[in-house]
Structures are given as structure tokens and as C-alpha cells.
Amino acid sequence: EVHLLNPLMLDLLTFFVKKYATAYNFKILFMSATLPSALVKYLCENFKIDRFLDYSKGYEEKRRVLWEYIDDQIENYVESIIKEIQKGKKVLVIVNTVEDANKLGKKLESNYKLSYGEDFIVFHARSMYKDRIKKEKWLKNNQEKPHIAITTQVCEVSLDLSYDIMFTELASLPALVQRFGRVNRYGDKTKNINAYIFKPHVKNPQSYPYSET
Questions:
Q1: DSSP state of 35
Q2: In the list 10, 86, 124, 164, which could disulfide-bond 152, CB 3.0-4.6 Å?
Q3: Half-sphere exposure of 42 toward its Cβ, with a 13 Å CA cutoff?
């Protein structure tokens, strides 16, 4: 996922690829569904790439996601989320911190009497390996059933699942594009809004995964 690398990791990748390319004379192929133009320029200049194939026009013909921004926090829309599973839909809820994911899960259990492991699941990167495997298995086994999956950024790269509707906190543009990829994943065009973006809950800006910019 080269487009998700931070500047330091991108610099390290560039250094080592250049170093070993000279020694082993290998060829390099970079692939991404979401490659920013600045990153294309960086890769082409650093690796002297002379072939760049752009198939983005094919994506433009589709419209799998229609989104709407709501200037409120996601926790105030829990009833709207529950209504969607009552309609028989699979709902993906993405928050930006583990603390908020756990808090939302507890709210579904205590305030709305939903059952963990039946109606919903909370999935984040801090789960121990055994628990993570169990949760991934649960998600795959329930991919045809109405449920709520409350996740953090972990869903952006590790889940090959498709949801009917998504409620997500605002994040960086590359992160949002990855999140959109978990909605209507195997469908074509949609006429209805299926992604709602909410104002993020920033408790401590210093430890928050995204800056305001």
C-alpha cells in the first residue's frame, strides 16, 4: 500500500530499492487503486519510471459510493445506525481511536440492548492475535447477515468485505478513499447515499492519529 506510507517510510523504501536495484538489476512494479499525483511524480523521478499506466477512467465510470458530511459526532447517530440493521443491512462504523470504538460498543450493549457477537462486533488493531483471528472469522461468517462492525483504521487495509452502508469519522483523504472501498465493494452505481462522514471526536490533538490539516 505505497500510497499509505508516511514520508519517512517512503524515503527508506526509496533508499533500499535504489541500493538493491543496482546490485541485483531487478524490475519494479508499483500498483495502487489510489495513487496521488504527487506520489506518481515522486516515484517517476526517483526510479526513472518510463511507463505509467493509468486506468482511473474505468473507476470514474462507476459510482459505487455517494457520501454526505454531517457536522455532528457519530455517537449522536446511534439510532440511525441501528435502524439500518433493522432494514436488513450490513453496517460499517469507523472511528479514529480505539477508545471511541470501545465506547460505542458499550453504548450499543447498555443503552440499546444489542448483543456483542450476535448483532455487532468491535474490531481494532489492539486486539490480541487470537482475538483478532476470531473476529475476522466472525466477520466473514456473517458477511451475508445484517450486523454492525465497529472498527478503527484497521479496516482500511485488512478486510476484504463489502458493507451496504458506512458511518465514518472524518479522516485524511487517502484514509477516506480506503474506507469507501469497503462499501458496495462488488457493486456498480448507486443512486442512494451509502457513506456518511461525521465530525471527528478529538479529545487530545497531540495523540490523535490525524492532524487538523
A1: -
A2: 124
A3: 15
Closest C-alpha among 105, 156, 157, 162 to residue 139? 162
The owner of cell 456498480 is 188
| Helical segments of 49-190, H only | 56-60, 78-86, 98-112, 129-141, 155-158, 173-180
How confident is the model at residue 96, as a pLDDT?
96
Q: Is the pTM of this model over 0.85?
A: no
With H, G, I as helix, E, B as strand and everything else as coil, classify residue 149: strand
Helix (H) or strand (E) holding 17: helix 7-24
Question: From edge to edge, which strands make up the β-sheet containing 120-123?
Answer: 67-70, 195-198, 165-169, 91-94, 148-151, 120-123
Say if CB 3 and CB 36 are below 8 A apart: yes
**DSSP line for 152-167:** -TTHHHH----BSEEE
What's the rounded mean pLDDT across residues 103-128?
A: 93
- Residue 35 has φ and ψ, to the nearest 5°, of -110, 110
Find residue 67's DSSP bridge partners.
195
At residue 117, the 3 state secondary structure works out as coil
Per-residue pLDDT for 85 more than 90?
yes
Closest by CA position to 181, among listed 31, 32, 16, 38: 32
